[in-house]
Amino acid sequence: MKIAKKVGLVLMILLVFTQSGFCAGFQKVDVDLSRLSGIMVYSEVYNMMYEPQKYAGKTVRMKGMFYAVTEDRPKPVFACIVQDATACCMQGLEFRLKGNYKYPTDYPPVFSEITVSGTFFYENDGWFVNIGLKDAVLEAWR
What we know:
By secondary structure, the chain is α+β, with helices and mostly antiparallel strands. The protein has helices at residues 2-19, 38-50; strands at 22-23, 27-28, 31-32, 59-69, 77-83, 90-97, 113-124, 129-141.
């Protein structure tokens, strides 16, 4: 009986953490796109592009397709791409993993489904605004 109570308590704690916006490493998530429908994720990423200052410094989690841009770049650029509900339009966020990872050995295959979380940033050089996730963690891929 005591074991059943302990197991139940552990399961209850895990349920509270997973339902309250905590992700891998017990990091609080401010914007969880991984639970939204395709059209809602697409719309929210558009909002991030349109008003990046509202999201700066917030922890974002998203699920999408992994993509790497390696041509004509000194360093590869990695992104999590999402599609709208009709799969006609795509948007994505660049992500920069926390730690020292090497491409391609430490990354999933291109077009894999991934879940990534990190701190939202934006950089404005006067001409372009670049948005993405820094100190990112790849939570899962398949």
